[in-house]
Amino acid sequence: MRPLLLRLTSGRQALSPVPEVKIRSPSRSKVNTGVNIPFKEKGRAALPAELQSSFDDLWKTCSERGLFINPCGELESMLTYRGIPYTTDKRGWITKALLMLPGLEVNDKEYPWKFIKEIQEYLMSLED
Q1: Has residue 4 got a pLDDT over 80?
Q2: How would DSSP label each residue in the chain?
Q3: Are 43 and 72 in contact (CB under 8 A)?
Q4: Confidence of residue 93 (pLDDT cuts 50, 70, 90)
Q5: Residues near 14 by Cβ (< 8 Å), separated by ≥ 6?
Q6: Can you give the pLDDT at residue 5?
Q7: All residues at 6 or more sequence positions from 122 whose CB lies less than 8 Å from its CB, including other chains
Q8: CB 76 within 8 A of CB 93
Q9: pTM of the prediction?
Q10: Which of 5, 21, 27, 109 has the most beta carbons within 10 angstroms of its beta carbon?
Q11: Average pLDDT, stretch 84-91?
């Protein structure tokens, strides 16, 4: 017997069978291709404008529970404003980022500092 799903239709509740969903884990090489790339590179900014507020709601809900979604996409997107372009070469990116780090000034309004501050504020709230 298939489980039933409660759904709302035109203000009324209705029961319908839960559709069967087959979940397949993509291979690592497929994760780095296709539709994922804009989200990895630009994060929230890659979403259509009408979905960005939904992302903000999700981010808020998750961050209140200690789960922080990088709004920039991947870590490698956090320093694009400083001239380090997004790349899938994590080793090359971290080398450039570490060389740049001593010259960066902490600014809570820019990434990565803004992201770090949000995590710090959450951790500080746990002490209250």
Answers
A1: no
A2: -PPEEEEEETTEEEEEEPPP----PPPHHHHTSTTHHHHHHHGGGGS-HHHHHHHHHHHHHHHTTT----TTSSGGGTTGGGT----S-HHHHHHHHHHHGGGPPP-TTSTTHHHHHHHHHHHHHHT-
A3: yes
A4: very high
A5: 6, 7, 8
A6: 44
A7: 63, 64, 66, 68
A8: yes
A9: 0.65
A10: 5
A11: 92
In one-letter notation, the amino acid at residue 82 is R
**Residue pLDDT, tens place only, 36-68:** 788 889 999 999 999 999 999 999 999 999 999
Count of Cβ atoms closer than 10 Å to residue 73 Cβ: 22
Rounded Cα–Cα distance for residues 16 and 4 (Å):
5
Rounded CA gap, 78 and 72, in Å? 6
Using CA atoms, how far residue 86 sits from 37, 56, 60, 116, in Å, is 10, 22, 25, 19
The CA-atom distances, in angstroms, between 87 and each of 8, 37, 38, 97, 111 are 44, 10, 12, 12, 17
